[in-house]
Specification:
alpha/beta; UDP-N-acetylmuramoyl-L-alanine:D-glutamate ligase; Protein-Tyrosine Phosphatase, Chain A; six-stranded parallel sheet; 13 helices; 32% helix; 18% strand
Length: 384
């Protein structure tokens, strides 16, 4: 049974708001760019607007469980870090339930006992809708421009992210990446860093994943894991779909599905892992486009651009002398990229996907299907 069994939902329609609180799906705005009418009515009535993670916490405590809560946020890397920490805990025999912004929704997680740990990926949308949830261990990995339509500016976005540390005390742990502010935090602050990629962790390629592993290590220690359990977890972590996932090969060309890269900062992390590649990018661009990726443009054999903002990316690439083709769709881009003469075809779009897909997962799945459609070699050469 779900931890939140017993909660009742009502559709208030256009009636005056008469409930104790409003729970909104994270994608529904309650302030910017314009509040949903239900959120506006709740605000006018002085009722709190909450996320489902808040209800999970209340339900667990109401059931008498002292299970611990670990929360992870950041612009990039939070899904991998969440999954890795849950993998570490499960491997050490700790009862664990993970979800939130990744995988299972918070209210569908099971009720854990006193020895259990909830590992929750927390988006900025979820974090700005908490009232009592206190994370015994919380991590803020990094920050780069994203979701500014919902938060107004970088200051608003940072404030929403830093809310993961609200209500912590000196008994708790706050894990932060380099350069992030720690002023005013009540918890014990732990910094993490990494200098090079991991040698023997195939599910965690690149320096960015070494940073994710360092953050998960700090969180694991805060939750009582020993070094052996942490090491086993890192070595055996299988990785996550759509995050530098090798989906096949064709005529000696490897195809990498990094559809989760929905902004330039995330795409940079993948691009740094390959010396030469054909790049498939585009969709709905974030603030700044791909200007920040210019130092890596020399690695691009040819760029194949898709989606709404392909012309914007084409202008940036043209200004930097990068060969490119505006393809419009993945269906057009994949066969062209396969024949570009590069050893790797990298789908790392640096864009949101909602102009053409229901989400980054659907975009990545379509890419993998198109790779399979190239011919038998794609399947026979596929590697783990």
């Amino acid at each position: 049974a779900a931890a939140a069994a017993g909660f009742r939902l009502r559709d208030h329609g256009a009636l005056p708001f008469a409930a104790e609180a409003l729970v909104l799906s994270p994608g529904i705005p309650h302030r910017l760019p314009a509040p949903h009418p239900a959120a506006q009515r709740a605000a006018e009535a002085g009722a709190p607007i909450l996320s489902d993670a808040e209800l999970l916490f209340q339900a667990v405590r109401a059931a008498g469980s002292r299970a611990r809560f670990a929360g992870i946020t950041g612009t990039n890397g939070k899904s991998t870090t969440t999954a890795l920490l849950a993998h570490m805990l499960a491997g050490a025999g700790v009862p664990v339930a993970s979800g939130g912004n990744l995988g299972t929704a918070a209210l569908a997680l099971p009720l854990l006992g006193d020895d259990g740990v909830y590992v929750l990926e927390m988006s900025s949308y979820m974090l700005e809708r908490l009232a009592t949830l206190r994370f015994g261990a919380a991590a803020m990995l990094n920050i780069s421009p994203d979701h500014l339509d919902r938060h107004g500016d970088m200051a608003g976005y940072l404030a929403a992210k830093m809310a993961i540390f609200d209500r912590q005390t000196g008994d708790d742990v706050a894990v932060l990446g380099a350069g992030l502010p720690a002023t005013g935090l009540a918890a014990a602050v732990v910094r993490f860093d990494a200098e090079r990629p991991l040698d023997d962790a195939p599910g965690l390629p690149g320096l960015h994943n070494a940073l994710n592993a360092a953050a998960a290590t700090a969180m694991g220690r805060a939750l009582g894991l020993d070094e052996a359990a942490i090491g086993r977890g890192i070595a055996t972590f299988p990785g996550l779909p759509h995050r530098q996932q090798r989906v096949g090969a064709w005529r000696g060309v490897a195809f990498i599905n990094d559809s989760k890269a929905t902004n330039a900062d995330a795409a940079e992390r993948a691009m740094l892992c390959y010396d030469r590649f054909a790049w498939i990018a585009g969709g709905i661009a974030k603030a700044g486009g791909i200007e920040s990726l210019a130092p890596l443009f020399g690695r691009i054999a040819h760029a194949y651009l898709i989606g709404r903002d392909a012309p914007l990316f084409a202008a940036t690439l043209a200004a930097n002398g990068v060969a490119h083709t505006v393809c419009g769709t993945l269906e057009a881009a994949v066969p062209l990229a396969a024949r570009a003469g590069a050893p790797v075809v990298l789908l790392s779009p640096a864009c949101a996907s909602f102009d053409q897909f229901s989400g980054f997962e659907a975009r990545g799945d379509r890419f993998a299907a198109l790779v399979r459609a190239l011919g038998p070699a794609s399947a026979s050469e596929e590697a783990a």
